[in-house]
Amino acid sequence: MMNPDEHASIESRIAALERANRRTRIASVGFASLFALAMLTGQAPPNETVIGDAQGQHLRLVPSGIFVYDQAGKQRAFLGVYSDGGSGLSVNDQAGVVRTFDGVLTSNGSIMQVYDTQGKGRIKITFENNTPGLMEFGPNGNTTLQATSGTAGGYLRTGDNQQELRTYIGVYSQGTSGVAAYGTNGVATWSSPSQ
């Protein structure tokens, strides 16, 4: 059972993700509008085009995408195609650190990732091979929560900051389901049904 502080923490994380997603959608519409305007005017795109204002904010359009810079010259966003064939939108904070990424992978899977102020991935939502997944990472980058579903069934597992499995709820590889708690040594201290 969650205590009120844990519940409030999860709600604040969800609210932050919803705000980031809303900003991403608004930025995507703006970038698409600029691209459509360039296409409608019949301009043949050069290798690079820069559009700016008197305050120093500017866009840089290149064949692979659009870069957005703030008045200080820091990259704040990129929308385009990556060298591996994937595509996406990354949004940076005022320090130029990537804070969110939303994209399509070369495998046609999709991903959304949220980063902390140091640029470390903290939350990742994926959808690959018709399988959704959610991961949360600790400050050291280790997986502390993982949830997924698949053809055999789904599971929820939590780990500590050393990435040791601590709890597991779901379907095991042999097809049975259960719940288990693990000690710091990775050995099950309790499970149902017994392992």
- Major sheet characteristics: 14 strands, antiparallel
Strands, total number = 14
Name the overall outline: elongated
Q: How much of the sequence is in beta strands? A: 35-45%
Radius of gyration: 21 Å
Helix-strand topology string: HEEEEEEEEEEEEEE
Contiguous runs where pLDDT drops below 50 for at least 5 residues: none
Count the DSSP helices: 1
> Going across the major beta sheet, what is the strand order?
1-2-3-4-5-6-7-8-9-10-11-12-13-14
- Summed over residues and divided by their number, the pLDDT gives a mean of 82
First and last CA, distance: 24 Å
Structural class: alpha+beta
Helix content percent band: 10-25%
Q: How many structural domains are formed by the residues?
A: 2
